[in-house]
Design brief:
- With 225 residues, the chain is of the alpha/beta class.
- It has 8 helices and 12 strands.
- Strands 2-1-3-4-5 form a 5-stranded parallel beta sheet, sandwiched between helices.
- The longest helix has 16 residues, at 107-122.
Length: 225
Amino acid sequence: MNKEVILIIDDEPQIRKLLEINLESNGYRTYQSVCGKEGIIMAATQSPDLILLDLGLPDKSGHEVLKELRTWYDKAIIILSVQNTEADIINALDNGATDYLTKPFRTGELLARIRAAIRKNQNEECSAIVTFANLKIDFVARSVFKNNILLKLTSTEYNLLSLFARNEGRVLTHQFILKEIWGVAYQSETQYLRVFIGSLRKKIEENANQPKHIITESGVGYRFN
């Protein structure tokens, strides 16, 4: 059974009850808060392994709570919100959200996202070699193998793949990727990014037109599975 602690910060009693039932039936322990101020205090006192955060809180914006938490809390924060505009999603991800699901959400999908986020927490100190299905990445040698065959990646392609691998399961926005790989001056060059993603997919995917590793999050960015 899981022993991880999940903090729910949401002012809707029906949502809190639904989450409590489903999470605890899957072995998680839960704590609940109905507002941002109390949620921040509970995050500090209960040391949760993951936080589920609503953006529409009664005392302060969930975006403000997210920013405040990210000044010291370094584990996963998944946003659950009815706010589903591209701007809201990008803003939350750029401010440090690990993932974003819009309400109403599917319980199975939420549980899968939680498992991926907690797994990343536990593997934060990345080992020298990691494996994803048919891919193996050696961070020390800067080498990538597909089906045990060494791939010839450019420096940029390797840096992209390394960034994805170290953020497995997390949605990375276009702006975040561009800033991390090429610098602040390139943050608006989304077409530039698409070209390199296309090139990388051709090398690491079995079928670049139906990618299994680098998944497009429409209008937002990419997720690595």
